[in-house]
Description:
This is Spore coat protein CotJB. InterPro entries: CotJB_dom (IPR024207). Keywords: Capsid protein, Virion. It is a single chain. With 108 residues, the chain is an all-alpha fold. It has a domain of 49 residues. Helices cover 70% and strands 0% of the residues. Helix 1 runs antiparallel to helix 2. The longest helix is centred in the first third of the chain and has 45 residues.
Amino acid sequence: MARFSVAAICRWVFARGRNFMNEFEERLDLLKKVQQMDFVVVELTLYTDTHQDDLDALEQWREAIKEAARVRKHYENKFGPLSLMSAPSKQAIEVGWRWNQTPWPWQL
């Protein structure tokens, strides 16, 4: 039977907790980026609704849409779908619905 010292066990527990916190912080950071990009897209959409001739704003809107999709895809590849609409049907069939596993985005 293996014997471990209390110090070794404490180091192991501390390292595991630190890894958990790093992943948790990364998840929060990515979720914040998704929210920021969604905000930018909504604001630019509202602006371009009333300023149809502003070609710079229209280009910014196009770039924001691309960046929002990129950030969302990065989050979903790493942590799973953010919504039911994000879950591809192939994943739903082969893997199951990961969107119903906690923590939910609003629980972070």
